[in-house]
Design a protein that fits this description.
Strand 4 (67-74) and strand 5 form a beta hairpin. Helices cover 36% and strands 28% of the residues. The radius of gyration is 13 Å and the shape is globular. Helix 1 runs antiparallel to helix 2. It has helices at 6-23, 25-40; strands spanning 2-4, 50-51, 58-61, 67-74, 77-85. The two termini are 20 Å apart. It has 2 helices and 5 strands; from the N terminus they run βααββββ. By secondary structure, it is α+β, with helices and mostly antiparallel strands. The protein has one domain (2-85): RelE-like (YaeB-like fold, 2-Layer Sandwich). A 5-stranded mixed beta sheet has the order 1-5-4-3-2.
C-alpha cells in the first residue's frame, strides 16, 4: 500500500503549477503523471529506489524528469515523504 504525506502531495501540486506556468498545462500533466505512475510501481518493487541521503529513506529517480520521490518502507506500506527537484537543497531529516 502506498501513502502520500501531505508534504509530498503539496510538493507534487507545486511542481505541477510551476511546470504549467513555464511549459504549459500539457507538459505539467505529462510530468506529474509520470511521477505518480513511477511511484505506483513501488507497490510491486519497493526497493527499486536507491538508498536515501537521509537515513531510513529511499529515493526513486523519476525517469525523463528532474524529480526524485523520497520514500520510506514501513512494514506493509510505502510512505511517500517528499517530491524534490534534483537541483533543490536536500533536508537533513523528514
Amino acid at each position: 500500500m502506498i501513502e502520500w504525506t501531505e508534504q509530498a502531495t503539496e510538493q507534487l501540486d507545486a511542481a505541477h503549477d510551476y511546470i504549467s506556468l513555464s511549459n504549459g498545462e500539457d507538459v505539467a500533466v505529462q510530468i506529474t503523471s509520470r511521477i505518480v505512475s513511477s511511484v505506483l510501481q513501488l507497490d510491486t518493487f519497493p526497493i527499486s529506489g536507491r538508498a536515501g541521503r537521509v537515513p531510513g529513506t529511499r529515493e526513486l529517480v523519476i525517469s525523463k524528469t528532474p524529480f526524485i520521490a523520497v520514500y520510506a518502507i514501513e512494514k506493509t506500506r510505502i510512505v511517500i515523504l517528499a517530491i524534490y527537484h534534483g537541483a533543490q537543497r536536500w533536508p537533513e531529516s523528514f
